[in-house]
Design brief:
CATH class of the largest domain: Alpha Beta
Oligomer: single chain
Number of strands: 14
CATH architecture of the largest domain: 3-Layer(aba) Sandwich
Strand order of the largest sheet: 6-7-8-3-9-10
Radius of gyration: 22 Å
Number of domains: 2
Distance between the termini: 44 Å
Bound molecules: adenosine-5'-triphosphate, magnesium ion
Order of helices and strands: EEEHEEHEHHHEHEHEEHEHEEHEHH
Largest sheet: 6 strands, mixed
CATH superfamily of the largest domain: P-loop containing nucleotide triphosphate hydrolases
Length: 318
């Protein structure tokens, strides 16, 4: 067996929506694949197929060689999943939630107790263990949900947007816990809308948009697609965005990213910085930042799709 997760040409439609439009991807054993995409891209749908919660219309998926359609019961025993929305029982305590999961897996009673204690400790929930989850903060629920996904010591773990809604400190803590799991040999498929998160945690990144994987590679390979470097311009007054855009079109091909920054592929290298400064000055646009830098994954997304990840997300919810 070559890969821990193999997905071939998955299609899933809802009426006229092609939630999955031929998704193909692989995760080698012990590695981390980041499935990166905006709202509605098909991330959750992919995870639901891989965790036996949803039947695809066509295509094939195996986890550790087990076909998701042919042997779902056996598959569920070797995987762990933490969904996009924490699936913990509000009326139970933190510890009771973990014990419940252990019982569902038919683990021996002593093993359940040991495992629950260990996980509560690992996720810094020991002190809150005897409180009902209804009173937990969002971050505590996320951690408990992740702990619950690990009760059965899964070899392959699926995390659907594990850090969405967490504050920066909690996100950093959770990243460290996830890195520990991977160091211990767990194979991980992680979905995220955060370019920074995929960059930090994933060995390889599959960029997904409207049900299709539109690019795949290491973070560096994806950044190379944008070219060596980009020039970034931030108008001092956000209202100047359109005028800056028009002015910069004389020297390059600017796209508007998140927060009103304008980004151009630096085809002429550092010379473009000088040219950009000149045309902006001529147009009377004051700028607060002008820089040449290595592309971020957000730039990659802009280049591949013509829109920023956050921009697509905003359109979906609008
Ligand atoms: N049960 C459903 N019924 C109808 N349409 C659905 C259903 N589930 C998903 N979709 C549609 O399929 C597409 C993919 O949805 P999916 O939940 O996989 O996206 P996602 O990448 O997880 O997005 P998000 O970042 O918002 O969680 C969307 O257009 C969504 O509206
Ligand atoms: Mg989702």
């Amino acid at each position: 067996m070559e890969h821990a997760v193999e997905v071939e040409d998955l299609v899933k439609t809802y009426g006229s929506t092609r939630a999955l439009d031929g998704v193909t991807l692989q995760v080698p054993e012990g590695r981390v694949l980041g499935l990166l995409g905006p709202n509605g891209a098909g991330k959750t749908t992919t995870v639901r197929v891989l965790t036996t919660l949803l039947r695809p219309d066509s295509g094939r998926a195996t986890v550790l060689g087990i076909d998701v359609l042919k042997d779902p019961d056996r598959l569920r025993r070797v995987i762990g999943v933490a969904g996009q929305y924490a699936a913990v029982d509000e009326l139970l305590t933190g510890r009771e939630n973990l014990v419940l999961v252990g019982r569902l897996y038919h683990l021996p009673r002593a093993e359940i107790t040991r495992r629950a204690d260990e996980l509560l400790e690992r996720f810094e929930l020991t002190e809150a263990a005897s409180r009902v989850v209804g009173g937990y903060s969002g971050g505590m629920r996320r951690r408990l949900d992740l702990a619950a996904s690990l009760v059965n010591r899964p070899r392959v773990l699926f995390l659907d947007e594990p850090t969405t809604g967490l504050d920066p400190r909690s996100r950093l803590r959770l990243w460290e816990v996830i890195e520990d799991l991977v160091r211990d040999g767990t194979t991980l498929l992680l979905t995220t809308q955060y370019l920074e998160e995929a960059d930090r945690l994933a060995d390889r990144i599959a960029v997904i948009d409207t049900g299709k994987v539109i690019a795949e590679g290491t973070s560096d390979e994806l950044k190379d697609k944008v070219g060596g470097s980009v020039v970034v311009v931030r108008p001092a007054d956000p209202a100047d965005g359109e005028r800056a855009m028009v002015a910069l079109q004389a020297v390059g091909d600017p796209v508007r990213g998140t927060g009103g920054d304008l980004t151009m592929q630096a085809t002429t290298g550092v010379a473009l910085v000088t040219e950009a400064a000149r045309v902006l000055e001529e147009a009377g646009v004051a700028i607060s930042e002008l820089a040449l830098r290595r592309p971020t994954l957000d730039d990659v997304f802009l280049t591949l799709t013509g829109h920023g990840a956050e921009q697509a997300a905003a359109e979906e919810t609008a």
